[in-house]
């Protein structure tokens, strides 16, 4: 019995896997619209590697890159890590892109240090490497960096919060990202600098991973620890919305000032709705567009982009404060991402 | 069917009853299906991308799968005993950060740091095996707990910092040597050697036969005089040592000690085992099948990337492949009864 059934079983397995291979065909056919096979060496290829596929920030970044690639007549290849921090996944993506003959790679490093050896290998093969959004350590590991000044983003909301408090004593909660991640550290210290405070003045600091539900839990715990909190710094808007939910449950949403960073469309709408007082908006679409253009320039006349390009940050609020430059949510919603 | 006409005899080996022809033997190998799938995938990608069918690209694929491949050897051993190991990626991450930190920042010579890493990873495996066997607890729960323990220890020990400036011996396996026009890494050779070694041990030694027997029926194995307790702990320990080797391969590949490493490698290794035709219910499958399973994943990821397909489709396809492979396993099991 077993002998007879095992023969078709292994064939069945092969057939099943073939089916999946066929699915691969359909998948790329209906995929990002760039599924056509490569033809010869005349075509310029640009690689974009983000931290994940799912974060709306990177989705917008990809969109900006695709749009520019189409306009410039170059082919865009995309890849991403499986989770935030997936260095090995990004290394594999770099290798595969170099193997496929890309002219330049745009990358948002999951780990600023760990990615460096892989980038050096790619650069040694003449590939232009540009970091988007997140710098590498050292920054010289890439040819150029196109990113938001995260310290400045923090400073803007710090200055805003200081002005909005109008001299009232502040009890600060900081809903941070995760230990050791440069973006979070820079925004946090920028906020304190703008507010004119130090870490000693922070009544409660918690990590949220930039996640809404963890932001809510963190805020609940902070209120438990220190009920008098009246200023909340958040790493991004999902964390801010989590904090808002926790405050609302306690009936405190009106008398606590929440400030944030990112400028996603959901977040900017929350500013308009009065849930978040102000946010620092950044521009992932611009980072990607500039990146693709830089690779095109390199392909045309061999000129490599270099140094740091600030892609800008704008304070968005509907309750402007004297002495703090800001734009309203109408502008914010027009320029938001996600 | 022919077997039913012969009176069952305890002294006649099963293989003699079947008397298979070489062709039939080939077709009934559990690795045949995965191998055909791998070849079909390769053929498909050769047509769709100019860069796919080159020695350099195949060398690259092997490099890319060597870490998960080595983890998957350990995973295969454990799954053959009807167990499962969710902690392999986390144990590897701890091993890698330990080796990197001891050698780069501690005072240990590199080779001593590597040896210590292997011992510690083996210790994690032994502890898993002991908890599974002695208390006893389900492997799923034990290794789920150990996943969290190893993950936390990695982050505590590393202080969330990536370790850079590694001494030469730690990255030696990531170096290449030319073979014709192709550059091969030493680590790829280590991985292939490990696959061959464990395949031999499973198919041609008493230990290997005992592993299969244990997976088929622990009670029958015990009644047949197999020391199942010692065997189980041994299998988990060997797996742990393999995770230690994977840790070294990982360091040599990326050139750094990375506390974030390995977070999905437990599932990736199980994927490879399943795609390679090993049954999740134990007792059936092979290490060579797992090697083919690992290559299937690597070929798909590389081939789709060369075609310019976004990575989320790679995840989609891998998921479909796994479900198909398990379905086939289930159907063939039912028929076998």
Automatic annotation (TrEMBL), chain A:
Top-level taxon in the UniProt lineage: Bacteria
UniProt-recorded Gene Ontology molecular function terms: carbohydrate binding
Compartment(s): Cell envelope
Gene3D superfamilies with a match to the protein in the record: 3.40.50.2300
GO cellular component annotations of the record: cell envelope
UniProt xrefs under InterPro entries: Peripla_BP_I, SBP_2_dom
Name of the featured protein: Sugar ABC transporter substrate-binding protein
From TrEMBL, chain B:
InterPro entries from the UniProt entry: ABC_transp_permease
TM helices/strands, residue ranges: 34-53, 73-99, 111-131, 137-157, 184-202, 233-251, 272-300, 306-328
Cellular location(s): Cell membrane
Membrane topology: Multi-pass membrane protein
Gene Ontology CC entries for this record: plasma membrane
Keywords, comma-separated and alphabetical: Cell inner membrane, Cell membrane, Membrane, Transmembrane, Transmembrane helix, Transport
Top-level lineage group: Bacteria
GO MF, any single term: transmembrane transporter activity
One Pfam family it belongs to: BPD_transp_2
Protein name: Sugar ABC transporter permease protein
Taxon lineage: Bacteria, Bacillati, Actinomycetota, Actinomycetes, Kitasatosporales
């Amino acid at each position: 019995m077993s002998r007879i059934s095992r023969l078709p079983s292994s064939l069945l397995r092969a057939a099943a896997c073939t089916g999946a291979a066929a699915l691969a065909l359909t998948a790329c056919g209906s995929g990002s619209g760039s599924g056509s096979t490569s033809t010869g060496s005349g075509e310029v290829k640009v690689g974009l590697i983000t931290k994940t596929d799912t974060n709306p920030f990177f989705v917008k970044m990809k969109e900006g890159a695709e749009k520019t690639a189409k306009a410039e007549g170059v082919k865009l290849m995309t890849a991403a890590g499986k989770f935030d921090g997936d260095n090995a996944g990004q290394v594999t993506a770099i290798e595969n892109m170099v193997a496929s003959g890309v002219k330049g790679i745009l990358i948002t490093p999951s780990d600023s240090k760990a990615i460096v050896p892989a980038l050096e290998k790619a650069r040694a093969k003449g590939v232009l490497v540009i970091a988007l959004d997140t710098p590498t350590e050292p920054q010289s590991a890439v040819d150029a960096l196109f990113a938001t000044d995260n310290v400045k983003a923090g400073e803007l909301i710090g200055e805003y919060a200081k002005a909005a408090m109008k001299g009232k004593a502040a009890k600060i909660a900081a809903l941070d990202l995760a230990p050791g991640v440069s973006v979070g550290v820079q925004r946090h210290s920028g906020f304190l600098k703008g507010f004119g405070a130090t870490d000693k003045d922070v009544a409660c600091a918690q990590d949220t991973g930039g996640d809404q539900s963890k932001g809510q839990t963190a805020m609940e715990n902070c209120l438990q620890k220190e009920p008098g909190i009246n200023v909340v710094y958040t790493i991004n808007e999902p964390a801010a919305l989590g904090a808002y939910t926790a405050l609302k449950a306690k009936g405190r949403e009106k008398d606590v000032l929440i400030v944030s960073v990112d400028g996603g469309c959901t977040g900017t709408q929350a500013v308009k709705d009065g849930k978040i007082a102000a946010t620092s908006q950044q521009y992932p679409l611009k980072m990607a567009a500039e990146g693709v253009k830089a690779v095109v320039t390199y392909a045309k006349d061999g000129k490599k982009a270099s140094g740091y390009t600030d892609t800008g940050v704008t304070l968005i609020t509907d309750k402007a404060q004297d002495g703090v430059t800001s734009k309203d949510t109408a502008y914010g919603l027009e320029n938001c991402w996600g | 069917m022919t077997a039913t006409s012969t009176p069952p005899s305890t002294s006649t080996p099963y293989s003699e009853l079947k008397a298979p022809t070489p062709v039939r033997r080939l077709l009934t190998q559990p690795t045949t299906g995965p191998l055909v799938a791998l070849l079909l995938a390769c053929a498909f990608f050769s047509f769709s991308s100019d860069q796919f069918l080159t020695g350099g690209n195949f060398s690259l694929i092997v490099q890319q799968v060597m870490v998960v491949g080595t983890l998957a050897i350990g995973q295969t051993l454990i799954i053959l005993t009807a167990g499962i190991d969710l902690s392999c990626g986390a144990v590897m991450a701890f091993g890698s950060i330990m080796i990197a930190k001891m050698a780069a920042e501690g005072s240990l010579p590199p080779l001593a740091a590597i040896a210590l890493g292997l011992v510690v990873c083996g210790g994690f495996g032994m502890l898993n095996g002991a908890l599974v066997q002695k208390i006893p607890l389900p492997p799923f729960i034990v290794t789920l707990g150990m996943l969290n323990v190893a993950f936390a220890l990695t982050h505590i020990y590393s202080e969330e910092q990536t370790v850079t400036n590694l001494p030469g011996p730690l990255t030696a396996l990531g170096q290449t040597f030319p073979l014709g026009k192709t550059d091969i890494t030493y680590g790829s050779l280590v991985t292939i050697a490990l696959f061959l070694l464990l395949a031999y041990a499973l198919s041609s030694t008493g230990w290997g036969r005992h592993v299969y027997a244990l997976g088929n029926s622990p009670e029958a194995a015990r009644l047949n005089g197999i020391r199942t307790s010692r065997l189980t702990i041994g299998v988990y320990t060997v797996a742990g040592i393999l995770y230690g080797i994977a840790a070294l391969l990982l360091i040599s590949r990326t050139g750094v000690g990375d506390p974030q490493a390995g977070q999905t490698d437990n599932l990736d290794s199980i994927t490879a085992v399943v795609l390679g035709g090993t049954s999740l219910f134990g007792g059936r499958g092979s290490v060579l099948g797992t090697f083919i399973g690992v290559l299937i994943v690597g070929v798909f990821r590389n081939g789709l990337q060369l075609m310019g397909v976004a990575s989320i489709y790679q995840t989609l396809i891998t998921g479909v492949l796994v479900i198909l492979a398990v379905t086939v396993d289930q159907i063939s099991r039912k028929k076998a009864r």
